[in-house]
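A reminder before we start the practical. When you read a complex entry, don't treat the lines as separate problems. The point of joint prediction is that each chain is placed relative to the others, so the output describes one connected object in space. Small molecules and nucleic acid strands, if listed, are placed in the same frame. In the example below there are two entries. Take a minute to note the order of the lines before looking further.
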Amino acid sequence: MTKRHPLRALLRQDLQRAWQHGGQSLLPLIFLFAVIAMIPLGLGPGPNLLAMIAPGMIWVAALLASLLALEGVFRPDLDDGTLEQWWVDDQPVLALICIRLGSHWLISALPIIVATPIAGEMLYLPAEALGLLMLTLLIGTPILSLIGALAAALTIQARQGSALLGLLIFPLTVPVLIFATGAVSAHLDGLTARPYVLLLISLFVLAATLVPLAIKKALQLNLE
Amino acid sequence: MDSVIHAQQISFHRHGERVFVPTNVALMPGQLCLIRGQNGSGKTTLLRLLAGIVHPSEGTIARHGSVAFIGHRPGVKKDLTALDVLKFYAEFAGADPLYGAMSPQAALHAAGLARQARQRAGQLSAGQRQRLGLARLLVAPKTIWLLDEPYTSLDADGCAWVDGLLDQHLALNGSVAVAAHVYQPKLNAPTDVLDVQPGAQHA
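Here is the predicted structure of the whole assembly.
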């Protein structure tokens, strides 16, 4: 007589599959360091210039890594028939969606946040800005996962899904990027980063409350 | 005894048209309902309505009991091993305490996949994948089984295995609705036939 634990089962399966696809899971990190290694080659290795653009570069890498992982967020589950199982036998659909969002974040964003100190060092990021940059990543990358997953749910049956995904997502992520990098540059200019961080937090709260509901509706429409 | 699924005049509209003529379904404990119909007549849609994956555009459905649904895509992740697929479902869907659950290993053995336990599902043949999908019914047993073309890609042995599963489940007072258009289940239990009629144009 086994009791069911759908949330635990889904999280375990997501992480297990990410682990098995080792190469794919390392992609965000490879991406980050490829970007960071290329930039000095193109712009010249001047410490001042690199320090100025470092927060932006790391954020763009996080954005692209998040986008790269979106293709796998719902579509494979629709194709192999596991997604419809979420709607059978009173499963907690909304919570399952949140678990899937969480595993997307764990796989695409967490490695980048963890690697940010090293990346910052490579780009001469001032040490006093590092903590704040990591804080903005910690608040901001879940917003990227939320927005991206909503776009993925909406375009799940579109043929050119990934191209459409990019088009849909980039404009919506602009505020996140502006407030996050704004916080860091304000701090480096000796101003307070507080308003930027608070705006980021409110964006997160807004997205976290509304987006899972919208994703549920979007997926349900696509199951019909 | 009361029916485990009671659907009254249900239908589903797609692009403003009925997919099938409004249908009544009353599934009793220990009863098998065979859903027949031509290709595109709405058998799959009817099963998905009964499972609760989509909601009826008209009519009402009442369910009393746990539900297992196996669609024409068997819900098997191709990058997991056969064993991991069943372990996942055992935890994800859980077992209805009314029925005894098998361990994933025992279920693989019953499905004739004991030697494929460590193979990725993507490397299995279509028939083996279908067996793996159906083995979910053993690790996570439910009262109401809704099976969409469970005999697809199965060999004679496989069809007999599924018939045995159904008979066993019906003997335990479980209920089954099966959509099948070619193979007819050979069962001891009473079988009720439901013919799905494609919806009228511009209903």
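Discuss with your neighbour: Chain A has nine helices and no strands. What might explain this?
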